[in-house]
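Limitations
The structure tokens in this dataset are predictions for the assembled complex, not deposited experimental models. Users should treat interface geometry with appropriate caution, especially where small molecules or nucleic acid strands are included. An illustrative entry is reproduced here so readers can see what is and is not provided.
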Amino acid sequence: MAQSSGFGGALYEGLTIGQKRAVTAWLFLALPIVFYALVRFYPTAQAFWLSLTNWNLLTAPGFIGLANYQRMMVDPVFWQVMGNTLLYLALGLPLSLGLAFLIAYHLDRVRVGHAVIRALYFIPHITTAVAIAWVWRWFYQPVPVGLFNEVLTVVGLPQQPFLRSTTQALPAVLVPAIWSLLGFQIVIFLAGLRAIPQSYYEAAAIDGAGSWQILREITLPQLMPTLVFLCVLTTIGLLRIFDIVYAMTGGGRAAPGGPLNSTKPLVLYIYESAFSSFEMGFAAAQTVVLFLILLAITMIQLKVSKK
Amino acid sequence: MIKAWMSRSVAALALTLSIGVGAARAQVVEIEYWQYTFPQRVKAINELITKFQQANPQIRVKHTDLPYNDYRTRIAAALPAGQGPDVMQLFYGWLGDYTRAKLLQPLPADVFPPARIDAEFFPMVREMKVDGQYYALPTAVRSLALFWNKRLFREAGLDPEKPPQTLDELVEMAKRLTRRDAGGNLTQAGMAVDPAAQDHHWWREVLVRQFGGTPYSADGRTVTYTSPQGLAATRFFADFFTTHRVAEVGFMTDQVTQFRSSRAALTIDGSFRLAAFDGQRGLEYGVTTLPTHNGIASNFGSYWVNAITTKATGAKRDAAARFLAYLVSPEAMELWLREVGELPARVEVASTPANANHPKYGPFIRGLETAVATNFVDETAQRQIMIDFVDRLKIAGASVEAALAEAARAEQALLDRANSPR
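Predicted assembly:
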């Protein structure tokens, strides 16, 4: 046996048990590392390089330095989509987390039909975004198709343009996005609430704490890790919002993200630059910016959570 | 007993087949053809391939169709890797990009003599000539015409056989054909105008010229529609939405649905729409040439072309040239007109009495005489600028001057970027 294992085998035989364990661990780790290097890190590095070129898919990429970044700085559409993206985040994060907590907090106390209600809240999360988007798109139509305008006219209010307005379109797109986010957030919040030891509540009750005080002093601090986790995930999700905007504002023959770019998030502008205008370098430069923003936000949130 | 007989005969059949295939494979050249997915085009090409293979048994054509949105990405990924088509379809506006990227080879001059092509095809096809060599040829070309709904004309008290001939008549009739309910909501559009469909072409190459302007400078690098003439044309276009209120963007989702469902009385579209309108039960419509103005007729032409890629060499290149020659033959053009509804690219085929006087194709074919093909740098983005123009008027409440200036600024930036040295 020993003769057939050769030089490598001899080397392995000479290791201590601890070293052998390490070798085994690295062997198992090698597969995901190679996989990640190939499908994650290499394309990411490639995107950094592409952002310095004028690649149009057809011809070989030519190096143009920081021209794509300079163009971004003076491109009014870039700043508009940046503003839209931050607006999606600024509205979507507090609204969705607030609602999800409120629902989870009360759902936690419901004993009858708890599982059924929880499942109902979870359903939007597993529904395809495109299906959600199209149903909501019909809700927003003018009469006779649109449900919301139908209701408005019945109660004697004027019709609203919703998706055909530069001011109402973004919130109108955000509502179904939040709705589909809720399911996941509620389930995570519920798990967090269940994880708080019952004894804390009992102790507080004995000390005579009111329900508001219990919420502030026990429930919320204990939920902090859950909250940070959901904050990071929701922030990343909202900054990368794409499918629901694409399906709710595109579809026809007009480019998605309208009217007048008022609903266009950064990821959609990246997509358009890359696959409609074929300006791969410009698109890559925007992804680099998005990457840096996501990195910064995640760092900050992790730092906050450690406190 | 029967089982044994069957298995023997199946074995014999398989043997014969494999010998046959083996013998044929020795001399058959297989080439690949790519186009984008559009049911009528796919069907037409399949029929043409069947006929071509009957006449040329030594060539096999493998036909692939890809979703329009992925088309360029897939071509760009495949060709440099030595995969993909030997003969492919592309939009005329893409030729510059593809030749610069050295993805196409010039058509062999012995099969396609440039002088003969100059003489036999419609003039706009000359755009496919780079340094005296043709790189691509169309089977069919497109132009625009005016569609009108005869039933809605009758209901409005207009003569159903007298469509508008001039822009002034067009506006007058559109006003009479518009219906709104008590709440002021549009229920029937006098004219379906939608910059996202064909109307941005109508504005750019037809209206601007009819009002005495030009959309772009002669080299195509400068926007010139902000001239007083261009502004007048734009104001005429904007009036459909603002002053006359005969059209609304997004009414019945899009312009084609409006006309199909008899909710719009007039619309401008291409001959490729005939099949859809003909398939609509209860839709009684006619086609006529675009209205003139100041005695000026103009039209917008566009086309998809077939080209040989640099992947095809040796025997494959010869087979590819042969197939392409068949795709642009009069026979293929007739079949394409019947199946797809696009107009023959050869003058001789288009102007046969049967085609030129055809009640539906005729107006399009007559339109080809004045058709101009826009030198687009990014058609989607340039169309979007017109969509945004109308949104600025209707949603943001901008004046025509301000909205046009904004459109010109955006488009000039686009042209500058495309024409900057790479």
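Some entries come with short summary sentences. For this one: The radius of gyration of chain A is 26 Å.
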